[in-house]
């Protein structure tokens, strides 16, 4: 399907789209002139032809008069009579030709001009009107001062309504353009073909002359039939595309915003920004900006040569600007000059700042080390998922959730029946399923299995990492441990009743779980905890200020992750500094009993195994504990009533937290100090975990025994990213309450920002460190 103007491009309202519209409008205007001229010439030709027929008829009557006059000469009389009869036949053919010409050229093309082109003009007028209204709304929204809240809200509402109207009318206009461009060929060719067939009938005596053109005309006639069919098909497809896009929610220009450092065309990000002029008047002009080829450039029109703002991004910095009256401003500073820019929203400003910062980092890597540049070209820009295993990282570089999940051992076939190429998954169990088994899992209830499609549903990054940490082989070693011993055969594909009974026995009744297989040896990490000195045990994180955080000397084998916690290069996971154990940070003297009291025990209950495995980031052992009946919200009375979810926070693993939440962990359950998972994640600076808990409904207003809520802790620690997340969540909550949108996800900008943080926390945790450093610098 060939479209003159692309529907997707019109949603951006980019200079490319405007240039395409300008070209199409000019072409249609010229087409209208040509058709009007042709219709007028046809009218003149028909009128002249009719006058010719009248004159020819008079001439024929003169010949007949001459024939009668020549009655004495039989040869002359017979010849003249025959000639007059032939002329009369020619006059009849002429009359038929002009009637056919009037129907094929004048009526048909005139109808096309009056009907189709008129619809195009009406659509154009509406588009121009709403486009002007949108521009006025954008300018008004940009000019309103931040301290005039009423005007801000009014301008924002007007801009939102105008954008929606603009999108609908723009889509209608593009549809009208594409339909017109598709129909014009068939209309012109159809009318001309009819006209030529009339001439073929008229010039029957010149058939030999037209015989060479005849096969072509016949072929053209057959092609015209196909064109009519194809045009009708294209019209239906474009109407369907138009309807599909129109049903999408495009409440703001932020909906299509994204940046990609590995874009094939070299453009990392592009969009409209207001730029403050460097003249004395400091005027603001709206320009189309883009980040490309390690430069920041802008242009007014698509055909204009880009104006370079920053020659080399490595030499510049970017920062927020809150000391001017205009909102959403940021400044790009280079050694020679600075450029003040304004976005249309806070989300757009954050996106542009992140895009510039990412481009700066990319430029340093590309220029600094050619080997890193080659490695970067060979890997996706979003980075591989952090599964703690290099070979698994390589497997997870597929293009889709299906490809990534099916790379895990055992996931290429259904976990329960063995059918190849499963397209469904249970996210709390971490397994892949065929469509029939997925239906049975749904019938069990979400407290046993939460089913999602690997191809139809959108996968959050933490969920995708969770699926890649487990897999069918891991889960079946737990839930099918006694299948062979009991002599039970797994159901085959197609055996619906057998499948239902087997799946219910496997996951609900847990008949195949080996109840004597639980690990009885204390984890190595807890052995280390026992050996810590009594002074370290007395440390409490509630007593530490932002400057008192425990550190370890930098070593070559240690690197930082997204939360600021030291990360070993051997296992690729977050761990606390080695000088102080994670549990001792949260225990005061007199509250904590020596862990050796229960470390000497030879038997662990499932809740305790889940508790310890959560800190160790050992998802297979956690799944085993749940299979043995562990309470996901089990509280350890020996350690301040901490829960497995709190231990997962201390262990520093985002995936472990997600696994517990998917299996029913209470995100708001607190320990004896009144601190829930959100408190602990904020204290430790785990940005990704804070983002996850807020998305899962954590109460950020809860206070601990010292009366501090997470926002207070984050402000005291000067953690800019976490402060931003908490304030955005609080603002979104207040907005939903004021608008009565209880149970709704909230503002789209809020969702997009949290989606960006989730992506970074899961795929590029090192970016959070850099953004935090930048925010502290400025």
TrEMBL record:
Biased composition regions of type Basic and acidic residues, renumbered to the chain: 524-539
Bias (Polar residues): 379-388, 554-569
Alphabetic keyword roster: ANK repeat, Cell membrane, Coiled coil, Endosome, GTPase activation, Membrane, Metal-binding, Repeat, Zinc, Zinc-finger
Compartment(s) where it occurs, according to its Swiss-Prot or TrEMBL record: Cell membrane; Endosome membrane
Inhibition and activation profile: GAP activity stimulated by phosphatidylinositol 4,5-bisphosphate (PIP2) and phosphatidic acid.
Domain Arf-GAP: 399-520
Region of interest called Disordered, as start-end residue ranges on this chain: 371-392, 516-579
GO molecular function: GTPase activator activity; zinc ion binding
Domain PH: 266-361
InterPro entries associated with the record: ACAP1/2/3-like, AH/BAR_dom_sf, Ankyrin_rpt, Ankyrin_rpt-contain_sf, ARFGAP/RecO, ArfGAP_dom, ArfGAP_dom_sf, BAR_dom
Pfam families: Ank_2, ArfGap, BAR_3, PH
Recorded topology in the membrane: Peripheral membrane protein
Coiled-coil features, chain-numbered ranges: 117-147, 217-248
ANK repeat start-end pairs: 640-672, 673-705
First-listed, main subcellular location of the protein, grouped into a coarse class: membrane
Cellular component, GO annotation: endosome membrane; plasma membrane
Biological role stated in the UniProt entry: GTPase-activating protein for the ADP ribosylation factor family.
Comment text on domains: PH domain binds phospholipids including phosphatidic acid, phosphatidylinositol 3-phosphate, phosphatidylinositol 3,5-bisphosphate (PIP2) and phosphatidylinositol 3,4,5-trisphosphate (PIP3). May mediate protein binding to PIP2 or PIP3 containing membranes.
PANTHER family: ARF-GAP WITH COILED-COIL, ANK REPEAT AND PH DOMAIN-CONTAINING PROTEIN 2, CENTAURIN/ARF
Name of the protein this chain belongs to: Arf-GAP with coiled-coil, ANK repeat and PH domain-containing protein
Native species: Enhydra lutris kenyoni (northern sea otter)
């Amino acid at each position: 399907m060939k479209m003159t103007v692309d529907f997707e491009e019109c949603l951006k309202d980019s200079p490319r789209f405007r240039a395409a519209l300008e070209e199409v409008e000019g072409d249609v205007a010229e087409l209208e002139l040509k058709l009007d001229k042709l219709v007028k010439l046809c009218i003149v030709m028909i009128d002249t032809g009719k006058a010719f027929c009248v004159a020819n008829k008079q001439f024929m009557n003169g010949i007949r008069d001459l024939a009668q006059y020549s009655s004495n000469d039989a040869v002359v009389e017979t010849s003249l009579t025959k000639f007059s009869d032939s002329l009369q036949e020619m006059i009849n053919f002429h009359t038929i030709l002009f009637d056919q010409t009037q129907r094929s050229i004048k009526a048909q093309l005139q109808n096309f001009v009056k009907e189709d082109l008129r619809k195009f003009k009406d659509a154009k007028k509406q588009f121009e009107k709403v486009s002007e209204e949108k521009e006025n709304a954008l300018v008004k929204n940009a000019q309103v001062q931040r301290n005039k809240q009423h005007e801000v809200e009014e301008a924002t509402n007007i801009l939102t309504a105008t954008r929606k109207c603009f999108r609908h009318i723009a889509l209608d206009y593009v549809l009208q353009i594409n339909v017109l461009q598709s129909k014009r060929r068939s209309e012109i060719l159809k009318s001309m073909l009819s006209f030529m067939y009339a001439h073929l009938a008229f010039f029957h005596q010149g058939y030999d002359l037209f015989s060479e053109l005849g096969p072509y005309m016949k072929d053209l006639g057959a092609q015209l039939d196909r064109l009519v069919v194809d045009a009708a098909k294209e019209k239906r497809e474009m109407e369907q595309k138009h309807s599909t896009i129109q049903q999408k929610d495009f409440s703001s220009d932020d909906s299509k915003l994204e940046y990609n450092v590995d874009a094939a065309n070299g453009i990392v990000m592009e969009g409209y920004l207001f730029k403050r002029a460097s003249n004395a008047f400091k005027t603001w002009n709206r320009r189309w900006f883009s980040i490309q080829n390690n430069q920041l450039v802008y242009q007014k029109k698509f055909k204009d040569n880009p104006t370079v703002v920053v020659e080399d991004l490595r030499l510049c910095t970017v920062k927020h600007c809150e000391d001017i009256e205009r909102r959403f401003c940021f400044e790009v500073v280079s050694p020679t000059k600075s450029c003040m820019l304004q976005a249309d929203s806070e989300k757009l400003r954050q996106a542009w700042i992140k895009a510039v910062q990412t481009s700066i980092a990319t430029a340093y890597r590309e220029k600094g080390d050619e080997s890193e540049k080659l490695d970067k070209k060979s890997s996706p820009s979003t980075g591989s998922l952090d599964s703690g295993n290099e070979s698994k990282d390589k497997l997870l570089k597929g293009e889709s959730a299906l490809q990534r999940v099916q790379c895990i051992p055992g996931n290429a076939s259904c976990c329960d029946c063995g059918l190849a190429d499963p397209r469904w998954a249970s996210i709390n169990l971490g397994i892949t399923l065929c469509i029939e088994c997925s239906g049975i899992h749904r019938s069990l209830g979400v407290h046993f299995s939460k089913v999602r499609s690997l191809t139809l549903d959108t996968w959050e990054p933490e969920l995708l990492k969770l699926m890649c940490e487990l897999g069918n082989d891991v889960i079946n070693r737990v839930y099918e441990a006694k299948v062979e011993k009991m002599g039970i055969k797994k159901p085959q594909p197609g055996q619906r009743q057998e499948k239902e009974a087997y799946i219910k026995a496997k996951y609900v009744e847990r008949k195949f779980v080996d109840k004597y297989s639980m690990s009885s040896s204390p984890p190595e990490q807890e052995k280390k905890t026992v050996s810590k000195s009594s002074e370290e045990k007395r440390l409490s994180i509630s007593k530490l200020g932002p400057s008192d955080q425990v550190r370890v000397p930098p070593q070559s084998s240690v690197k930082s992750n997204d939360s600021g916690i030291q990360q070993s290069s051997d296992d690729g996971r977050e761990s606390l500094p080695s000088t102080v154990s994670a549990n001792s940070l949260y225990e005061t003297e007199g509250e904590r009993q020596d862990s050796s009291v229960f470390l000497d025990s030879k038997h662990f209950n499932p809740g305790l195994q889940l508790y310890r495995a959560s800190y160790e980031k050992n998802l297979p052992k956690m799944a085993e504990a749940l299979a043995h009946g562990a309470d996901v919200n089990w509280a350890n009375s020996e350690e301040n009533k901490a829960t497995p979810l709190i231990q997962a926070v201390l262990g520093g693993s985002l995936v472990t937290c997600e696994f517990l939440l998917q299996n029913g962990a209470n995100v708001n359950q607190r320990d004896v100090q009144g601190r829930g998972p959100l408190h602990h994640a904020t204290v430790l600076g785990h940005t990704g975990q804070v983002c996850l808990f807020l998305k899962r409904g954590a109460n950020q207003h809860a206070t601990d025994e010292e009366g501090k809520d997470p926002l207070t802790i984050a402000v005291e620690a000067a953690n800019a990213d976490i402060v931003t997340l908490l304030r955005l969540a609080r603002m979104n909550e207040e907005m939903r309450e004021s608008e009565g949108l209880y149970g709704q996800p909230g503002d789209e900008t809020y969702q997009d920002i949290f989606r960006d943080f989730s992506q970074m926390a899961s795929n590029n945790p090192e970016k959070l460190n850099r953004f935090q450093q930048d925010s502290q610098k400025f």
